[in-house]
Amino acid sequence: MKKLIVFLTQNLHPLQIITKNSFWITLGKILGGVLRALLVIFSARFLGPDLYGSFALAINFVLIFSFLPELGLTAILTRELSKRKEEKGKIFNEVLSFSLFLSLISYILIIVLGIIIIKDIRSLKLLPILGIMMIFDVLREFAYAVYRAELKGELQGILHFLTNLFLFIFGLYSLIKFNTTIALAYAYFFSIGLGFILSILFLGKLLKTFKFIFDLHIYKLYFKSSWPIAIANALYLLLLFTDSIILGWFYPSYFVGIYNSAVKINEFLILFPTGVALALLPLFSSNLNNKEELRKTMEFGIYLNYLVVLPIIFSIFILSDKLIILVFGENYFTATYGLKILIPSLLANSIFMVFSQFLIAIDRRVELLIYEFIGYITNVLLNLILIPKFDFIAASYTTTFSSFLTFLLGYFAIQKYLSFNLWQDVTKPLLASLILSLFLILVSKFSLIFSIIGGVFVYFLALVLLKDKIFSELLRYLRLPR
Q1: What pTM did the predictor assign?
Q2: Is the dihedral angle over the CA atoms 20, 26, 28, 30 positive or is it negative?
């Protein structure tokens, strides 16, 4: 036990440092993500579709602007601190000053554009509070960037978890005690603010010697390095939240609440294939001069997405009504239709992330920006045309269509660097998913928990019987009969 504690808390050698930091950062994100997901569920249940819709509209609008104070600078800060350790104080002062300057601009934009765009009065009242909360949240990430540069991933993981624990506790208390959107907004404000204060306390000398620097020339130099990351983040946030803003313009907050309940489930499920995509980057990066290995890695990564995502999609089609009622309650039952329309986008988005990791490895990530921009413009135009006639159903169809459009454009773009078979090894995960679907239909009268547990067993058993390569390899490794 003592050796394990030392392994997870001290920097011993390069491979151990990577393992230690990855463990803490990933653990913090998973635990924090679970706590935030639970708070979303409780918020939706306590507030109901109407009030929850107002809160979702406000926080989605605010989060769109979070790309501006961040502007890709956290990655640049980690990179520069790692490269130029002797200039640590100077770099920190310059980058954080740039972010603080951008924070002021983003806050003004939130208030001014909110008055113009947001029609819901309840949502409008939340913007000043949530705007400051967002700035605290972004500035907290700059502290994490320093910890990553100093190889102290344990600090980021623990503080990220604590911040989300504060958010869950204060948020749940506000719902039980007051059950209003304004109380929930203050809970976000205080908990994220507390997390921000805790995070900067560990900066030590950097915090004590911080001095604000206003120099547009210096800001421009950092922007030259960060703009591709900033644009990618902006497009991602716009694609994620614009549909809710448009929906809130044409319809009461009730529709925003219904739609966002389906979106939140889809967002949570993307965590699983995200892990697959992130794990591929080192493999791509270490085989840049070996096209055959790159092809095998690409096809294997896509195959893993089929393995993970196909059973999720098939299961959601069958279990969506039970899942929505269990998670959000009967008031959100109509979100079932939106979830069934949205869930296929999970496959397009998961494989697109694999493409993105490959292009990052070969330093061509910027080439995807034009296709992401096309996807976003398509999404906005279709939403503006269809939402007035078909409410959140149109938003669901538009999101899924835009995701597949971006995926296809990315697929054709990547072909000039690497030829691969998009459908390699899809047959067995597809057949196993069909067997899973048959099982779920047969046990449809049983509880959701039984269906999920039984479904996992049936899916894995089907893969074993079909002699899927991963499970065949696992069985061979364990020396078990097949």
Answers
A1: 0.79
A2: negative
